[in-house]
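This follows on from our talk about sequence and fold. Can you supply me with one protein entry, sequence and fold together? Could you add the entry underneath, on a fresh line?
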Amino acid sequence: MPELKVEVAPEEAGFDGERLARIDTHFRKYVDDGRLPGWLCLVARDGRIAHLSTYGHRDVEASLPIELDTVFRIYSMTKPITSVAAMMLYEEGAFELKDPVANFIPSFADARVYKSGNHINPVTEPATEPVRVWHLLTHTAGLTYGFHYAHPVDAMYRAAGFEWGQPPDADLAECCDRWARIPLLFQPGTEWNYGVNTDVLGRLVEVCSGQTLDQFFQERIFEPLGMTDSAFAVDESRLDRLAALYTANPKDGKAMRLDAMGDAAKTMPKALSGGGGLVSTAADYHRFTQMLLNNGELDGVRLLGSRTVDYMTANHLPGGVDLEAIGRPLFSETTFDGVGFGLGFSVLENPVANKVLSSGAEFAWGGAASTAFWVDPVEEITVLFLTQLLPSSTHPIRTQLKQLVYQALVD
């Protein structure tokens, strides 16, 4: 496992050490009053870790503390990894961003779009253009999640067995075929909606590479970057390091154990979810963020060209609008105003509109269990926050973390 340690004094990295310590003071309160089981926070600048702290428990009931090598379910922080995998294949000429997804997954031909009606008897119309690869990367394909509970199409996903996961009998190819039979939420490219887009993208990676998604990740990303603990399931040798999963008790808001969902990480799934299936550690994901900060390269290993990373982290939403203008207000991975979306990342364009202290250059994403990361290429900062509380909308961790990191910059 890559060693994780503080590598530079905060003052040498342009931070005020006392101000940076406010991160720990603030988030300890979340644990002390029972809202979070525990957490790990990492702040790095110019490739060197300036702040690294843990607090609380990976398993409250067993009194096991969060440690530097604790394994976390990163859920949707899998999406940037899948997006990088896809763009690695793009760089090899495997597809064009405008290619119809049906060229690789035939069931997406002749897609239908929801028009009216309920989830049992929907009225649909033909798609005016095909679902394209760039639609998957930007969440503008018209796909959704069953857990949204906001639209009849969401209910169709639940009826097909897709709420917080996939039906146990279906592999990734079959899941894609089943999603393709459900109407799209809207015409491709016209709106933004958080959904199974990146899972379908993971299947595209499989088709184009001739490998299963776990094989591609392992051979092309994890091994080259030295990410030794990232996988679609926790093996026997790492089980003692796996954090338990929690959710907020509706009665008092305190973290309540959720083994019914948490135990899924202990078994290799039949469907490899590029949208939310990975477990990882702080050391591993830190390696991934450093590769992104370095424009696709780390320690002599280059996964992507520098221009590709720049392209992925530009706002690709139609017309250059923000998510407030085009996004359906269903998800909670970030706030909407001033935030665009690139090829696999949210992209902050206007921090004044966003009303959160920042440089205005970050690209980021988070996971359903309240995990989060961002990369700021202007300030050369990467930040990682890992915990295990579902869902991510429970507490404003991400916005608070951002204001606490940037207020500590004094250079």
